[in-house]
Amino acid sequence: MLKYFSIFFLLISTCYSNAEIKDKIIQNLKNTYNLDFKFEQNINGKIENGNCTIEYPKKIFCKYARSNNKILVSNGRSLVIKTITSYYRYPLHKTPLNLILDKDYLITQIYSLEERIVDGNLVNYTIKQKNQEINVFFDNETFNLIGWQNTDAYQNFNITFLSSIRKNRVLAKNLFNLPSQN
User: Fold this and answer.
1) How large is the angle between the packed helices 103-112 and 2-30, nearest 10 degrees?
2) Where are the domains of the chain?
3) CATH for 21-167?
């Protein structure tokens, strides 16, 4: 009997701690209006890095290190990727970033999804939307968003890791203006 009670207690405490983690992640997201961070992105084995700023909802500015002055910008409606020699503009709603940059959508999804603890320090939620799967990762101690993994519109496997995260800073008003094509 003691054996069954121990197993029951272990299951209840695990469920409670997972629910507590979920609540803390949701509360942290609710209290985050913007964040900036360093990133490392691996797209099919090609690694790039740089700095990004996200402002909820759906705005992002990323400047890549050592890569033709590459920037990625979303004003909440469109997404532009610009380098010295190229300029691509996409409707944001046709990209995985549309979901990743929507804090309210993430919160709604997290409420209904089961979390998975990875290596004891990452909390993972898998979002499935319109034949698209996005894995979102949070730190198990700070409850910050620390990365995502998805397949992009061109079927490239994309893993993005965040580090040196700072939240709720004063941002330049024109940071998310789309660059001109030149």
Assistant:
1) 170
2) 21-167
3) 2.50.20.10
